[in-house]
Amino acid sequence: MTTPGDVLVLFGASGDLSRRKLFPALYELERNGRLEVPVVGVGRTEIDDEGFRQHGRAALEEFGPELDEAVVARLLARLRFVSGDYRDAAMFDRLRDSLDGATHPVAYLAIPPALFDDVAAGLARVGLNEGGRIVVEKPFGRDHASAVELNEILHKHFDESSVFRIDHFLGKEPVQNLMVFRFANSILEPVWNRNHIASVQITMAESFGIEGRGGFYDDVGALRDVVQNHLLQIVALLAMEPPVSKHPDALRDEKVKVMRATKSLTSADIVRGQYRDYRDEDGVAPGSDTETFVAVRLEIDSWRWAGVPFIIRAGKGLATTVTEAVVEFRQPPSAIFDDGGEPSANVLRFRMKPDDVITLTMQAKVPGLGMMARPVDLEVDYDEALGVGAAEAYERLLGDALAGDARLFARQDSVEESWRIVEDVLTDKPPVALYERGSWGPTEADRLLPDGACWQDCD
After folding, report:
1. pTM value?
2. Cα gap 196→191, rounded to integer Å
3. CA 298, CA 277: separation in Å to the nearest integer?
4. Which of 12, 225, 319, 330 measures 20 to 30 Å from 117, CA to CA?
5. Is the predicted pLDDT of residue 376 greater than 60, yes or no?
6. Please, what is the Cα angle at 116 between 115 and 122, to 5 degrees?
């Protein structure tokens, strides 16, 4: 059984991620009675404990929910701060002394990956890797080689079982619902395979552009930003076999099997696009070839999925903002009703953003004397059906990291396999095709669809 952490150490505690995400998550954990440990901030800012508490209150007032002062007071009382440089050995001595003998520290690295080696080595030098865990934020490298190197850095000081790679996307309630919907409803299992499913489409569209983040985005692009991590995780949840137990590694084993069965992408499997005024954005290089849109066609070479295309598209400046997975079943074999047209396929749509809705499109008789079928939607809105109140992603993941529950965290082999899938098209890539903002991206992406198929565009 995993031992819960007895202190949370936040490296980069005065940074933007902590202000926007971590402090609101800590507030919710405190409000729900799930935060029972001290929180020690570490950073280069020269402040004391009281200064850190003031920083925490300011973050909550700006980015938190409506505040309960009793909860705020309890949270602030847990806060301490250690100031210093991450490359200074003396700073780690002071950190160790500030933990009051805690033996299972959880170190959260909200810092650039270039500093991981310094921090991991510093923690190990003062013995905080023994019995402790380390939580690191994505990106986990820029390609396969850098991901392997980053893992080797962490493994010099921490066992793989003590490394928690956080991807906030996996903490979102609608994403977790994909797995529950699949494996808690036995009616799906007999048809969840190549014999009944024709294709799967996954869309992550944003109607806005890069929002003043040109310097960051131009060095990353859509493939690295969301496909290699977030959207391949959705593929894994949709395609994996049932885990053999509740053990965290049982779930992660099945996801890795999907990754290993997925063929590496080639230039024929990808279409890249760029909205027309992207190069005019601040921070974007003149003549930039960075994609703001990408579509890829994946093949999963397994008995369950061989021959079923999994098609991903993601981009900015598109027609709407939506994240969804659409499973299209095979068409009925013949038309037997009066309209004589091609019978429509059933479609199961998992919408994860902007709302959490599952829709099953069936065929039903049109009222009247004739025998004509038309599609009808059977829809479940999870907020209406089950009530709101879901935990935010960082609240869930911070709580899981403290508890030692690794189910929603990426494992080394999963990270390296996901980079292997996209590795070849990071370099051998087609040029970007221009598209208009407010469209669904370049029409060249249509060639990735099966013959006669179309995109399942949102209404």
Report:
1. 0.91
2. 5
3. 30
4. 225
5. yes
6. 95
